[in-house]
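Chain A, query sequence.
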Amino acid sequence: MLAARPEYLDAAYSAAIARYGTFHAFISTALGVDTLTQRRLRDNLVTGSPSTRHHGAAAHPDQGD
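Chain A, predicted structure.
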């Protein structure tokens, strides 16, 4: 079974922000995903309110919108 440990997700998120400034910039630049595709993915995959969408107890300030 695959698991996503919160500390690993937090470390990856922090590394992306440190290098690219925002998570949106990371997805756009490093992964080459355009804004429309990001929005479609978010609409289909993300659940919960904006304050609970991220894996940690507190939401990250960069929602990438």
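The chain is about 50% helix and 0% strand. Residues 6-42 form one domain.
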